[in-house]
Input
Amino acid sequence: MTATPDSSLLDAARALDAADPLRAHLDAFADAPGVAAYLDGNSLGRPLRDTPEKLAAFVRDDWGTRLIRSWDEQWMALPMELGDRIGRVALGAAAGQTVVADSTSVLIYKLMRAAAAADPTRTELVIEAGNFPTDRFLAEGVAAETGMTLRWIEPDPVHGVTISDIADVVSERTALVSLSHVDYRSGALADMPGITAAVHGAGALMMWDLCHSAGVIPMQLDDWGVDLAVGCTYKYLNGGPGSPAFAYLRHGLQGVLRQPIQGWWSAADIFAMGPEYVPSADIRQLLSGTPPVTSMLAMQGMLDLIEQSTIAGVRAKSQSLTDLAVRAYDEVLAPLGVRLLSPRDAALRGGHVTIGHPDFRDVTRRLWADGIIPDFRFPDGIRLGLSPLSTSHVETITGVLAVRDALESGDF
Output
């Protein structure tokens, strides 16, 4: 009997799951009753199964029993210690260059504003016209504050920013180039070492937004000469809604760049309560106010899993999942007029695949009601976010087939 596309795809998915060296980690994540396929881990990662007990233990012991003593015993150092761990596990960054602190927006502002003021002879900021709104809005604000000129890159919407795009816009006037490592729409993966080198060739600083790559894409920030970077922890690091972001500032720029929000936590002596501000000489200089300790808890279990799996292993699983999604697109969605809005080559793609169709806003509502959870991005895209440690190949195919069924039925 001839195999149907559904059975062929599901058989392939089952075989890949059986051979998956990371399959045991699927059971580490909490169940979501009524959800048949969670394909939004690139936006909000699922909680680990043991997170509720860890949070309860924190309230009972670290906070409830040790009370304010926990600041001296562990919490004062936590932003730097956790930053070092993220740097080691996910970023290719040596200790002392990464810190967990504020929201992504606040940290991008701090670093962007500091970089803009680094050299008064450089008067231009460069950013992609389609970058995530926060990045663009902050760049507009920093340019307005400093009187600098914004230069906009308009790359191919599927394949993203290239070295050639950079060469066309940077000059001796460029102070900072700010780009996303993985495009939040298409999933296009930028050439971080190549673009960073091109920016440095013009004498400018390079900042990367790692929100859609931290925890799913191997990188070597130190070896690639990255100057500054910011990433969130609630996507592939599974820190929970609103968990704090991290910032990377290479050693050579610490004490050179000066971030603008001069709170007491970044002072050289936090408890001196002195008459003037003297910044810390180390990575703590990027802090401002009291760190959100409670919000730093959930991500630590996910860092354990990534460290056990290795970031290279996570990337291999990610490529397997997205390759299967593209195969399924070709077989069951392309015939229905759905467009592929992500690169076909897994080496040029991050952890999500985007597909487009005029009916996808309504289709997404139908899918959510049926327990299939991708996300919709204006104007007509569905992102299939495949978080490698919590997503199976069968779950991926279940989601793609549900998109097909919704389109064919027209019942949305």
Summary: The CA atoms of residues 31 and 49 lie 8 Å apart. The radius of gyration is 22 Å. The mean pLDDT is 97. The longest strand covers residues 174-180.
